[in-house]
Amino acid sequence: MSANSYICLLKNRGFSFFLATQFLGALNDNLYRLVVSLILVDTTIHGGSISLVAIVFLVPGILFSGYAGHLADRYSKRNVLIITKSFEILSMLLAFIALGTEYHSLMLIVLFTMATQSAFFSPSKYGIIPEIVAREDLSRANGLVEMTTFVAIIVGSAIAGILLHFYHAQMYVISSVLVVIAIVGAAFSFGITKVSAKAKHNKMSLNPYSEIYKGVQHLRGHLFLTMVIMGICFFWMIAIVFQLNLLVFAHKELGLQYFGVSMLQMVLAIGIGAGALLAGHLSYDRIEYGLIPLGLLGTGVGITVLALIPPSVTWTYVLLVWASIFTGFFIVPLKALLQDLPRKTQKGRMIATNNVFTDIAMLTGAGVLWALQVVLELSPQTIFLFWGIIALIITAASIYMLPAFFIRLVLWMMMRTFYRVKVHNEQNMPKEGPALLVCNHVSFLDALVLSAVLPRFIRYLIHKKYYDIKSLNWLFRMANAIPVTSGSDKESIEDSLKIAARELKKGHVVCIFAEGRITRTGNLLPFKRGFERIMKEVDAPIIPVYLDRLWDSIFSFSGGKFFWKLPRRIPIEIGVSFGEPMPADTQAWDVRQRVQELGTQIQLSTPHKHDILPYRFLQATRFRHGQFCMADSDHSRMKYGHFIAHTLLLAKCLRDKHPDEKYIGILLPASVNAAMMNVAIAIAGKIAVLLPYNETKNIKSHIDKTNLKTIYSDHGFLQERHIRDDFEWQAIRDIAYINNDKKAYWSARVAAFFLPIKWTLKHYGDYNSDSQAPVAILWSVRDNHPHRPVVLSHQSIIAPVNGFSQVFGDTSSRDRVMGVLPFFTSMGLLGTVWLPLLQGMAVVYQSDTNPAPDATAKLIKRHRATLLFDVEQHYREYLKHMRPDDFSYIRYAIAGNDIEDEEFSRAFHEHFGISIQTGYGCAEVGPISINSPDVRLPGQLQKGTKPGSAGQPLPYVSIVIVDPDTGSEQLQGEAGELWVKSPFRMLGYWEDEAATKAAFKQDWFNTQIIVSVDDEGFLYFN
């Protein structure tokens, strides 16, 4: 369960006691007020007396809120709540006399004393919430407070009608209920969390309005806070008018009696409570003020429709639910903003100021209602129409005056429908003051996502050609976006940068996408230095920001195009990470390094539940049963349906045959059988130990290191490699019996195609949803510590496969992989086993461990392979012995190690017409960098390849260059040791925790390779 949830919030004992205290207080207030209202409405011809009840109830708030706000700031709010609850008991004892005598004037006097108690209770009630709950829980806490308040109204409304229905001749029963509720509420108040006074030295003024005057002075220059208070005032004006008019409407137009009228009040309260609770839930960990215009619009529509249709009990209930739910949407973010925006020492004063204005607004509403009912003698429906139209007009006016409300509404609706956003390092978000956000640029959606996350209005620098689009220009102008030209118009560019600097000096947040354009591969582009010029004369922090997983959006360039494609999944899970503030004079390269590292950190810190190899394999291949899957030089050939069925049956066999064995060895060349074993072992929940058959002398040592009991191999292969059969071998052919069981075969195919993937994996294997569970062991070949077993997790394999697919964006399920590398190498396992299987590609294996070039050429031609994974020595043989048309189907030739010989690379390209895409990696942290294809578009080139380099880091891989002597980080372009932070990293060296800890320093791995990096992030070996 999330740490931030309603359940966890209710486990806060002090908050739960506070919730119970305010619930019982609201219950008593509404129960007594509705009892008095129902008694009076039954004795008058029109609704004028109802307005009188409202006036009496509201006047104390206007008279005493100033004192109440001062008390809330100067003294402990908990103590104020306890004392005011004690006074509630006295008021209810007086109510015992008033109701018993049925003396109307005395009833109104009691109502006045109750309202006075509420006036002193309210500032401490709302002011204590931010002191006893975390800021990210404010919306949820306010949702609970508003929900329980309206539950109190529900219960009060129901009890009022029931008590009057059964005990209208025995008023002492009703009075006793009121006294008991007051006593219990006072008892609960002692359990509220203890808090200290926030402004102990504030002097008390005899003038009750001096505090309110100071509050009004504070509002000057705070348009947003002023609008919040005005919104709350309008809410309560509408609420009081609607509630009072509803009493008359129900009694006069619908012909309802005590119980029926109280049921309408109860439905109204249920709707508002549900809306408040839902608003708190939909706000996540933020104050979502985008709900405000939505709530106001829905409320206005509901009231207007109620006024226009003929009186009907059924439709009244329906429209009450509609309007009241939207009313909850409206009030929750307003209350949360009122508690969050003022400084700690001003909260009580501002809440008291709000209460006075609210009471004035409610008093005005009651007065207008009295005039409409008594003077103009308008019908209840006409009065509903009057206020419904006013609500719609104010909705339009608020959007016009504060367009941020409308923009937040649009963002909120879009984010809730298509995306799920997770914020990382929220403590680094600039909650106040100026800040420059420097963000990576992945899609056209980036600015909208960032605005949806940060609860402040952001000024974006946006390319002028997009700013001038007619259909969007109004939105950009409303958002105060700053247009920036490109090219040679340096004067215009400088003007845009000066505007951005001015916005920062005003205390605003400005965002720049320093890459200058959307990435076409997901890799970071070089950061332009325009933001350095912005910050020359500005004293504000630079906040690096990383947007994660937006590559899966239709608004990115994934698949080689924008927009015109289907989303990979709905909803898309997005991550937004805020880095620690950096000084204003930080250079572009350093900011780029931090942004890159944020992306890596997201992957390292985010749990990827259910993102495991067997699940992804069955998910990718479910509808490809008739498609060619794999073949090898031994003439084995399978379609996906055949491969899936045999793999599932093999997994079940491994699970049942070796129930107590965690590790299963594989000593096989690259082949269909070897691939099947790797997948089956993963499904069976075991760990594949890939033994290096090229190190015959070390095989026994490897077996001893991992305590292997069972190794699957082939006797013919063992003889071929001159490996003595003196261990406990299990030949792959020994489980070939599964091919003959047709019933089991077709059951497996049907299960893989039709049944839920989790069920299939549980039936045929050992399902584990943990992506960090170990799945394979390779061998480190570092010079200082050779042949250490390296444990890889599911995520260690899935992440680089995703990264490869991202930078080689035009690859698809139509491609066919030519696999020559052995599976005990990182590139062999990732590139020729799991890459094709997780992407739905076909793969062809060269099973001969010493293949002749012409044998590989025949396989390429026969199966039309398009992706070749191989090593330098083989590529040199291909150049010597193969004709150009032998590589006619190959689109990308990928080298498993760096090829530094530029002359050879150029000769290979001239001979075959394709370049070798070189890269670098190691078993401990997986693939690190690669030369990917250049992306060429009209007027644009994003370089993915530079001859002589080892390429750019894969997405989510961070690198730093460190001086090997001093350990300090080198400047861009200087040579040093390559340190890597990667989500592709190993879980550790097998059963060697000390060596694992020594290999990493705060998640950074020292490759001990000397390199330099250019301004575009390309690695060069020195």
Which secondary structure elements does this structure contain, and how are they paired or packed?
Elements: H1 6-10, H2 13-41, H3 48-74, H4 77-101, H5 104-127, H6 129-132, H7 138-167, H8 171-189, H9 210-219, H10 223-253, H11 258-282, H12 291-308, H13 313-340, H14 347-375, H15 380-401, H16 403-418, E1 419-424, E2 435-439, H17 446-453, E3 458-463, H18 464-467, H19 470-478, E4 482-484, H20 490-505, E5 509-512, H21 530-534, E6 542-548, E7 572-578, H22 588-605, H23 613-621, E8 628-632, E9 637-639, H24 640-657, E10 663-666, H25 672-683, E11 687-690, H26 699-706, E12 711-713, H27 715-720, E13 729-731, H28 742-754, H29 757-764, E14 774-780, E15 788-793, H30 794-807, E16 816-819, H31 826-839, E17 842-845, H32 853-863, E18 867-870, H33 872-881, E19 892-895, H34 902-912, E20 916-917, E21 919-922, E22 926-930, E23 935-937, E24 940-942, E25 952-953, E26 958-962, E27 976-981, E28 988-989, H35 993-999, E29 1000-1001, E30 1004-1013, E31 1019-1021
Parallel strand pairs: 1-7, 2-5, 2-6, 3-4, 3-5, 8-17, 10-11, 10-12, 11-14, 12-13, 16-17, 16-18, 18-19, 19-20
Antiparallel strand pairs: 6-7, 8-9, 14-15, 15-28, 21-22, 22-25, 23-24, 26-27, 27-30, 29-30, 30-31
Helix pairs in contact: 2-3, 2-5, 2-7, 2-8, 3-5, 3-14, 4-5, 4-8, 5-14, 7-11, 7-13, 9-14, 10-11, 10-13, 10-14, 10-15, 11-13, 12-13, 12-15, 12-16, 15-16, 16-17, 23-31, 24-25, 24-28, 30-31
